[in-house]
Amino acid sequence: MKDKEGNFGCSLQELRSLMELRREESCAMIKEKYGDVNGLCSLLGTSPVNGLDGTVEDINRRQEEYGQNILPLQKAKTFLQLVWKALNDVTLIILQVAAIISLALSFYSPPSADRQHCGKAAGGVVEDSEAEAGWIEGAAILLSVVCVVLVTAFNDWSKEKQFRGLQSRIDQEQKFTVVRAGHIVVGDIAQVKYGDLLPTDGVLIQGNDLKIDESSLTGESDHVKKSVDKDPMLLSGTHVMEGSGKMLVTAVGVNSQTGIIFALLAAGEADDSDDAGEEDDSDDAGEEDDSDDAGEEEDKQKKEQMDNKGQNDDDVVMDMQPLNEDGQPKKKKNLSTKTKSVLQLKLNKLTMQIGKAGLLMSSLTVLILITRFLIDTFWVQGVPWSSDCVPIYVQFLVKFLIIGVTVLVVAVPEGLPLAVTISLAYSVKKMMKDNNLVRHLDACETMGNATAICSDKTGTLTMNRMTVVQAFITGRYYKGLPRLKDIPASAIDLLTTGIGVNCAYTSKILAPEKECGLPSQIGNKTECALLGFSLKLDRDYQAIRDKIPEESLFKVYTFNSERKSMSTVLYNPDGSYRMFSKGASEILLLKCCMILASSGEAIPFRTRKREEIMKQVIEPMASQGLRTICLAYKDFPAADGEPNWEDEEDILSNLTCIAVVGIEDPVRPEVPEAIRKCQQAGITVRMVTGDNISTARAIACKCGILNPGEDFLCMDGKEFNRLIRNSQGEIEQGLIDKIWPNLRVLARSSPTDKYNLVKGIIDSTVLKKRQVVAVTGDGTNDGPALKKADVGFAMGIAGTDVAKEASDIILTDDNFSSIVQAVKWGRNVYDSISKFLQFQLTVNVVAVIVAFTGACITQDSPLKAVQMLWVNLIMDTFASLALATEQPTDALLLRKPYGRDKPLISHTMMKNIVGHAIYQLTVIFTLIYHGEILLNIASGRNAPLHAPPSVHYTIVFNTFVLMQIFNEINARKIHGERNVFEGIFKNTIFCVILLGTLLAQILIVQVGGSPFSCVALNWQQWLICGCLGLGSLLWGQVVSSIPSCCCPKVLKPATRAEK
Questions:
Q1: How many whole angstroms separate alpha carbon 685 and alpha carbon 705?
Q2: Alpha-carbon torsion 239, 783, 588, 224, what sign?
Q3: Rounded distance, CA 472 to CA 486, Å?
Q4: How confident is the model at residue 686 (pLDDT cuts 50, 70, 90)?
Q5: What is the structure's pLDDT at 282?
Q6: How many other C-beta atoms lie within 10 A of the C-beta of residue 551?
Q7: Residue 1051 has pLDDT above 80, yes or no
Q8: I need a surface site. Which of 193, 221, 280, 828 has the fewest CB within 10 A?
Q9: Residue 985 burial (CB < 10 Å; 0-12/13-18/19+)?
Q10: Using the 8-state DSSP alphabet, how is residue 1039 labeled?
Q11: What pLDDT score does 302 carry?
């Protein structure tokens, strides 16, 4: 209701105050101010049945008055902030300080000092003009640092941009149903159903057994029962765990409960210092004052909620809350193996070891350089100490320090995190095309190490397009669909009315979108099969629903994992009630005491008849892979008074069986081949389903999970629970260990059974290797298992928002074969990092040894600081891009998973690293110490301070870089393959980077001049350098011929992951 000026009868502040109330307080406030929910609807100008009229003018007016349902993006870090973060790297800071000191001292020349008297290395040889060019090295180092910083900042910026794009894609995956199509506004009537994550605040208009998980807001794990007369408040960010209903939207965007929390969070971050870690931005937000009108107690509660939200408070910009709102913090409380992937554990260990070794080598280099200088100058040459020479000695000290720092820069594998990031980001982007929407980057790599997959059946292994193909009705078993004339009219009416009202009203069959196409199934696919069955019996379920609208349903017992059934109660005009039920046939049949006879009349249902139907109807249906559903009803006469609807055991007893139907859900044609590939790759596939054991076994045989002649276990949830518990009813790991290695099918399982199985496999020590478990899930109650798993897959089509939130990867096509693609990409990430590691460690070993040996023997590093920074850029950024963007191949599925304890550096990799290092060191040292003789050029050894670049050392530098470029091609293969060129032209990025690096090297040598300590080479010298570089490829064939077992496991302790 609006006034003449178009204002609504309820202000924004009034609605916000209303949504702060809970339970009885909220009911009292609604009754006192509005009379009931209908009164509130009237003030907001909406219909509780039809919702808003949806005119553009009205929607715009509501958005102006009450806001839009958008939570603003957390401000992204600017490029300058990322530059500042990159500048804070310790080694770069040391390098910058040393370069600035070098730069300052190069301009200083003591007027009274005779450089000749300060030692042989200090001067005399260098002309004044060349000495004046001493600033170039310091400036070049600073320029190199700037390049490194800009590249690092750009990579961080690209990563953040891509992750925001990924989050946007995740947000778009979430859907919520409103009566009026379009963006949600205050006054909309929204349908609430099982599995939804509520995007707005609202007041319940009508509810059917509605239970909400409000733990994301309150921290309380118990589900809250919602009803119009006791607790009608529905809050954004909470999860619908059971039931369905309709709500009036009363607060959206920043005015909803989640929005208020985000506003507090933003206020906290505004006062936080910028040096707080990226992932800790929200930690201090809870200390800010609330700017809203909520009470102090509510403020405190909300601030606690923000602390609980941890790191998942960014990247929100859709009509839905982000999927990773509260799932990840809980996940991080799990085992450490969940917080850190297999590769992360190994890389952390390796990086620490290499970093310590690099620090030791750089310290030794500086120490030896200083010691040699002191001995040579003051002892061998006998130069007396002079204060006039101090600036020159300081220059030498700075020069030595720069050499030491550059050794450290080259030795420390800071490119590893970059390689991991690039590889994961590239894989994530490509995986989207393979129907894998990755929510947590490390899940991509972890999937490559998966040893077990616990998969749902419906929709994942099967097509999730269900149709009724067999039926038992009025005492007769139909192997096909029954004809209308074969069934009494009374039975048809009971059957079709029960189907129409006892299926969720959101489930429906729509006309085919294309001519000759199949009808579209919207909603629960089992219910759609029943609705389709009703249509084939010439009864329009929609006509039944129009006659009995959802608002008129007296009570609904929604389906859940405990009931295994759904029941709907109708109130008749004569005061009696009729309840329709549907559910698992073997469970619901036990609750039936009557059954429809061939005449359509109900007759007693004896135990003997029940057993006969079980053996002659249900088991044959199940053995064909059909899902069996029993349809029943029960009348409650008015004379007996109103039943106690809370006593479900009594309500769901003494039913009358109408029919048992067999629903077919065909196995996806690509699934058997996908499962065969998994088995070939060393991954065990287990089916965990809610169907009965006969149906599950039949589908498992069709899929290839069970094969003839194999002695594997199939059991139902009841038997599984009995076997894993001791006499006190407690679960024992030892008992689970006796079952899970041979278990292949778990039928009639509850979400708890699924969780216990996953936890049991992960915690097991019965096998040598710790199992890495992937799990698929689509239901709300699958959340615990999805979180517990190393990798949780949620269904993008059939999955609930809660399941998606708990998952690591969303299968956008609900197809098992997409999981196989995830395995390939995961293994490809692992291999890509290994390729990069093989390449980088080879460069590390050679560069460090050359610099260290040069310092010891010639009192200088043959590779100058700027040159080593260029080499560092090649092996960090460029090699990361080149080697981390290889495409996966089917060959990745021909090997077993690496496992958590396998060394990151394999025997073959170690052989390649050592073999190529030997070749490169031999070439470099030959050029350094005999190059002037072999090439007939002037020696560049023992050059004084500020000496001009030499042809000798330019050839050394050029040859070294060319060997790395050609060795990058060798690094493409890490399993001993001889053809290192295989598939090289399929990776455009690799080819472009390789060619670009080569062109850049030519420019550096030919026109780089003093800043790069280079002299232009002639074509004969380039030919020599090129041939020596090309020799890396030929030498690679020699290395490949050496058996890997000949290489000792010297790096094994340093590369093992911590258990």
A1: 6
A2: negative
A3: 12
A4: very high
A5: 34
A6: 11
A7: no
A8: 221
A9: exposed
A10: H
A11: 39
Strand 239-251 relative to strand 201-213: parallel, antiparallel, unpaired? antiparallel
Q: Which of 456, 801, 831, 860 is catalytic?
A: 456
322 half-sphere exposure, CB direction, 13 A CA radius: 27
Q: What is the model's pLDDT at position 336?
A: 37
Residue listed under structure tokens 């009379």: 35
- Phi–psi pair at 68, nearest 5 degrees: -95, 155
Instruction: Copy the structure tokens of residue 271.
Output: 């006062």
The SS3 of residue 329 is: helix
Q: Is 1010 helix (H, G, I), strand (E, B) or coil?
A: helix
End-to-end CA distance of the chain: 65
Is 199's pLDDT higher than 90?
Answer: no
- Most distant pair of Cα atoms in the chain: their distance: 125
Q: Which amino acid is it at 511? A: A
Cβ atoms within 10 Å of 185's Cβ, excluding its own: 26
Q: How far is CA 46 from CA 15, 323, 505, in A?
A: 15, 30, 21
CA distance 920 to 910: 15
Residue-wise over 588-599: b if at least 16 C-beta within 10 A, else e?
bbebbbbbbeee
Q: Helix, strand, coil shares of the chain as percentages rounded to 5?
A: 55, 15, 35
The pTM for the full model equals 0.68
Q: For 810-829, what is the mean pLDDT?
A: 88
Distance CA 1026, CA 959 (A): 7
| Whether the Cβ atoms of residue 946 and residue 133 lie closer than 8 Å to each other | yes
Q: Has 890 been annotated as catalytic?
A: no
Task: Tell which wins on pLDDT, 771 or 1043.
Answer: 771
Q: State yes or no: pLDDT of 38 exceeds 80.
A: yes
Rounded CA-CA distance 38/886 in Å is: 61
Strand 809-811 and strand 791-795: the pairing is: parallel
pLDDT reported for residue 138:
62
CA dist 723 and 713 (Å) reads 13
Exposure string for 380-403, b = 16+ CB within 10 A, e = fewer = eeebeeeeebeebbebbbbbbbbb
Residue 231, CA distances (Å) to 36, 41, 211, 226 in order: 13, 17, 11, 5
Contacts of 23 (CB under 8 A, 6+ apart): 230, 231, 233
Nearest to 42, CA basis, from 205, 180, 210: 205
Cα Rg of the chain (Å, integer): 36
394-401 own/partner pairs: CB under 8 Å, 24+ apart: 394/101, 394/105, 395/102, 395/105, 395/106, 395/134, 395/945, 396/121, 396/122, 396/945, 397/370, 398/98, 398/101, 398/102, 398/105, 399/102, 399/945, 400/366, 400/369, 400/370, 400/373, 401/94, 401/98, 401/366
The answer to whether the CB of 866 falls within 8 A of the CB of 140 is yes
User: What is the distance between the alpha carbons of residues 614 and 621, in angstroms, rounded to a whole number?
Assistant: 10
Distance in angstroms (rounded) separating the CA atoms of residues 805 and 783: 8
Spatial contact of 179 and 245, defined as CB atoms under 8 Å apart: no
Classify the phi-psi angles of 142: left when phi > 0, otherwise alpha if psi is within -120 to 50, otherwise beta: alpha
Please give the pLDDT value at position 780.
67
Residue 606: is it exposed, middle or buried by C-beta count within 10 angstroms (0-12/13-18/19+)? exposed
**pLDDT, tens digit, 9 for 90 and up, residues 284-326:** 333 333 333 333 333 434 334 433 333 333 332 333 333 333 3
Structure tokens at 445: 């790599």
